[in-house]
Amino acid sequence: MSNKTFRLTTVFLLLLINIAPVLSQPLVCKPKALAALKPFPKLKYKCRADELDYEQKILKYPERRAAINRYVKILENYTSANWWKADPEELNLCDFRKKSGIFSDEEKENYKNEYFPNLSGNDRFRMISVADPCYQAGYNGADIFLLYRKNGKVYVSEMYDGYFSRSDYGPGIEFATLNNEPIIEMSMIGGGISPTEIYYYFTIDKRTNKTVPKNLFLDEKHKPTNRIDSQMLMQDSEYYGLPPNLQETQIIKNGRLVKSFDVFNLSAETIGNDNHEKFERLTLRWNGKFYE
Questions:
Q1: Long-range CB contact pairs, 158-162, < 8 A, 24+
Q2: Across 25-29, average pLDDT
């Protein structure tokens, strides 16, 4: 499910509309998916009573890091062939309902409003978002892991520690191949009134079989980076003072990196009768090593 298709005035509405077409269809926990389901345990460690849950230092507490290390060992046991064959979305549905059958209207509503989709990917790579009990608990605070299946063994990497978002829909994942090298895209939405699409890129280290950053871009100081941001187009591009018919940022298409793409940044100017923000357009092109 893409979280970049519908253009509305708030991220919340964007996500609700994005999920709505699926929720208008019958949602079903299929018996085969239920049989393959292996629910993820909760990440557990004791929260410190004297800390506010938005404190970044929570991420480095020894008790938390020890709990994450234990959790990684658990994830390494997710080797079931049936689990890897099952569709991640179907596993999410069964993880929520806990029994096979068609969702009731109430279950569909609760799935839409209460379930934070924790599993996505394919039969080779799977990303899970594990709820953090002590960090940003009110904003879907999570640790994000990638599971890589190779020769019947599962290798687990911590892709992003300390995720949180006001959005009800979690981070997305896409895959590409570059010269036989796997490219893994993790995307998320940040910001509020002017939401930002944030993209991170990874590949697999051949020695460790763990994820490592894939630096496809140059930052403001012309240093290699695996991250790029772009303001989200929530109206037609002309609304932001841009040329007509521009599309939102897309870096992976049909399993390949695109040759060029646009990113959008806030300008110092405003536009329109309501003086809303004007965007600047930057086109980046692949030079064989990175985008510039």
A1: 158/68, 158/72, 159/127, 159/186, 159/200, 159/202, 159/211, 160/186, 160/200, 161/59, 161/68, 162/56, 162/59, 162/132, 162/135, 162/136
A2: 91
